[in-house]
Structure formats: C-alpha cells, structure tokens
Amino acid sequence: xxxFVIEKPSVVAxxxxxxxxxxxxRRVYCIGRNYAxxxxxxxxxxxxxxxxxxxxxPDNLNPSGVFPYPAKTSDVHHEVEMAVxxxxxxxxIPLDDALNHVFGYGLALDMTRRDLQGEAKKLGRPWExxxxxxxxxxVGPLHPVSEVGHLDSGRVELKINGQVRQEGDLNQMxxxxxxxxxxxxxxxxxxxxxxxxxxxxxxxxxxxxxxxxEVAIEGLGAMTVKVV
Length: 228
Known about the structure:
Blueprint (H helix, E strand, L loop, with lengths): L12 E3 L6 E3 L3 E4 L4 H6 L11 E4 L4 E2 L3 E2 L8 E3 L1 E7 L15 E8 L2 E2 H10 L4 H4 L5 E2 L4 E2 H4 L6 E6 L2 E7 L7 H11 L7 E3 L7 E2 L5 E6 L3 E7 L1
Parallel strand pairs: 3-15, 5-11, 6-18
Antiparallel strand pairs: 1-2, 3-4, 7-10, 7-16, 8-9, 8-15, 9-12, 13-14, 13-17, 17-18
C-alpha cells in the first residue's frame, strides 16, 4: 500500500544530449536583467547592481518543441537564455569552487506574460503570474561539461520566423555563472537538480500563434519551438 494519500507527482526531467539519460529537476532559479542592453530596454540602469532572482516551477520546463499560447494575456514575450544545471550544491559556495557544481548547460526560453508581469510590477507584487505559468520554459537537451566545457562566451541568438530578434554573447552577462551560483548559495541551499536560467540579451518581444522560434547558443546547438 502506498504511503501517499494522493498519486505521487511525476519527476520532472530534462533529456541529456547524446544519451538516453535524464536530468531530474529540483528547483528553477531565474536571474533578472543580467544583460546591460536588456536592462536598458526594460527601463532600468545597466550598472552592476546586486543580482536578483525569481523562480519558475520545475514542471514549467517544456522540452516538447511546442509552446502553447497561455490564457489571460495578450502580450507574451520571448527571452532566450542559457540554462545551467547543477550536479551538487550547498550553502555559501566559494566563487572559485562554483563551477565544480555544474553538470552541464542547455538552451532555454523564459516565456513571459509581459502584460501580467507589468501589472505585478506596478503593484509591487511577485512576478510569478507573468513568469511561472504552464509550459513557460521551453528547454533543449543538456550538454554535460565533460562534452562542452564551461561556456563563458559565445553567440546567443533567437529568430522568429527566420528573422533575428535577439542577439548577444554570453560574455555580456553582468553576473557570470560562478557569481550566480555563489550568490544564490548565500540565500538558498543549492542541491543536485537545480537549474539556473542565466538571463537574456536585448530584443525581447511578442510572439503570436503560428510563430516559429529558433534558438541557438554557440557550443550548445539549436532548438526550434512552435507557438500554438
């Protein structure tokens, strides 16, 4: 007899490139305004202020290649990001040890109900209604560090129906991957299975049903996601 009073939720997992293995997900942390040009386009000072994070839910991760246009919005934006997957964690991780906790990297999108996020900002409320809705984080397979190394530079690009909308470089991140891991570990106990979405370059904008999003990061290949 099961000890659970309801059916146990399934484990959320991301495919690992080149294998049948899966990466089980525990938490999803997302850094805000981590590229200067994006901070400017969102109306903020690009100076290096302390980083801030919000969260998506593990089951928001969506490896299907299809993004269902969500309810209660008329302004859904694309944000291309690099996902960082942790194989270990802890508290107060030293900066020079942070990368030792990384399993691998992958492609991701932080889809955003911008109109609902904007209303939340005006009212001083959390962003989750605009960020943490169903299927809001399309993801590609994870590439292990043993295969791709640690990525601190490389072109980041998103196309909509063949036209470039976002472009940048990983080296433009204000807070680098080791800094994000170390900072987060001061406030949370990080653990295996945690995912960090590392921010988006400028050029964010709306999508509509029927659009095809093509995401690419140098060293991590490409993925295609259709808006339905």
